[in-house]
Each structure stands twice: as structure tokens, then as C-alpha cells.
Amino acid sequence: MKQITTKDNSITYHNEQYDETYHSNSGAIEEAQKKFVDACKIREFVKDKYSITILDVCFGLGYNTAVAIDNILAVNPQCKITVVALENDMKILEEIDKINPNIKSYVLIKDLIKKRDNNEFNIINFPVKIKLLLGDARETIKQVTEKIDFVFLDPFSPKKCPELWTDEFFKDIYTIMRPGSKLATYSCARIVRDNLTKAGFSVSDGPIVGRRAPGTIGIKE
């Protein structure tokens, strides 16, 4: 798996099966911060909250989760954080121990991948709990019992990985989200927005990061 240094000096990889990188070349950590954490306004949410639950779809190297944890604990160190992550590629998880991104909470991600029990990884380091389910996200989403406040939707592009951008998959995500919760993704493709709408989401523009087009925010009203 080819390692690539992005413009913010964080590491990503090129996936040969999908012929795409796991992150934008403009900056892998920047993408996690702006396209997901900032887009969902997570820092504002946790100011007066006792807990937060995040679904990280296509966990990859764990940047989105780790950056979110850094932001949450910076604002509210006592906030209980639960992350449920979905990933089907063990090869990318095996790269985690080889990199050292400038993310304080990344030590939790490294610890997580050492805690495998069959197709599930778990770590509890109060106030953080992370559960990672390994397998096809269309199947593992059905195992999620937690009620979700925010969703980071980060598969490969709709052209390369259409199965994770369907209205059926989005409906499964929608079902486990709390009313008023948000989904963030980097794609603004018409089919993505149409399928989010079919699944019940209210759709709006997300931030513009590293390219001309905005991301997408889906809200469960």
C-alpha cells in the first residue's frame, strides 16, 4: 500500500482496489477537522452536553475519530464520548501503528487496533469508548444499537464504491440517529444528495475544503 504525504504533512495511503486515496491530498488532518468536526459543529454541541455518540463510517486510519476526540475534550474534558466505527479493510488498520500524526488522541486509535476480538475491536479509556466493527458496512450497521448524534460518512467516491451511497444504506443510518442529529460527508454528488433525501434527511451544503465543490450535511429533523 503506497504511503502519501498530504499538504498538511499528514500521511494517507492509496488504495489499489478503488484506485483512490483515503484522504484529500490537500491535507488528511485538515479534512478530518473541517469536513467532519467543523461541519457538524461538534465543539458547539459538547459545550453543555454530558455525552456524545459518533458513528464513523469507513474508519480508515482513524483520523476523523481522533480529531473529533481532541476537539471534544478541549471544550469539555468531562464529556463521555462513544464512537462506533465501521471498516472492512484490515490492511489499512494495520498501517495505523506505522504512523504518528499530530493528533493527541491518536494513541487511543493505536491502542484500539490491538484490542481485537474476532471481528470487533473495543477500547475504554474514560471518558472515551470506541467500538470498531470489521466487515461490510451494509451488514455491520445492523449491529449498531447505540443512538447516534453525529455521523461521519467517509467511503470512497460514489463512482468507485456505489454500494455505500444508496438510499437503503442511508435509511439504516437514519434509523439509529437521534432527532436533530447530523451526518457529514465530503461528497456533493447529485445521487448522494438524492439518496439522502429519499432516506429522510434534510440536505444542505457542507464546507468547501481542498476543492471547488462543497461537502454535504444531512439532518434528521
Outline of this structure?
With 221 residues, the protein is α/β, with parallel strands linked by helices. It contains eight helices and twelve strands.
If you had to describe this structure to a student in words, what would you say it looks like?
- The protein is of the alpha/beta class.
- It has a single domain, classed as Rossmann fold (3-Layer(aba) Sandwich), CATH 3.40.50.150.
- It has 8 helices and 12 strands.
- The protein has helices spanning 28-40, 42-46, 63-75, 90-94, 106-112, 137-140, 167-175, 190-199, and strands at 2-5, 11-15, 20-21, 51-57, 80-87, 116-117, 120-125, 128-134, 148-153, 177-185, 202-205, 216-219.
- Strands 6-7-8-5-4-9-10-12-11 form a 9-stranded mixed beta sheet, with helices on both faces.
- Strand 9, helix 7 and strand 10 form a beta-alpha-beta unit.
- Helix 1 (28-40) crosses helix 3 (63-75).
- The longest helix is centred in the N-terminal third of the chain and has 13 residues, at 28-40.
- The termini are far apart.
Which descriptors would you attach to this protein?
9-stranded mixed β-sheet; Rossmann fold; globular; 221 residues
What would you say the CATH architecture is? 3-Layer(aba) Sandwich
Q: List SSEs in N-to-C order.
A: EEEHHEHEHHEEEHEHEHEE
Biggest beta sheet attributes: 9 strands, mixed
How many alpha or pi helices? 8
- Which whole number gives the mean pLDDT? 96
Structural class, from secondary structure content?
alpha/beta
The 3D shape can be described as globular
CATH topology tier name? Rossmann fold
CATH class: Alpha Beta
Taken together, the total number of domains comes to 1
Helix content: 25-40%
User: Per DSSP, what share of the residues sits in E-state strands of 2 or more residues?
Assistant: 25-35%
As laid out across the biggest beta sheet, the strand order is: 6-7-8-5-4-9-10-12-11
CATH superfamily membership:
Vaccinia Virus protein VP39
How many strand elements?
12
Query: How many whole angstroms does the radius of gyration measure?
Result: 16 Å
Give the distance, in angstroms, between the N- and C-terminal Cα atoms.
41 Å
Which ranges are low-confidence, i.e. pLDDT below 50, for 5 or more consecutive residues? none
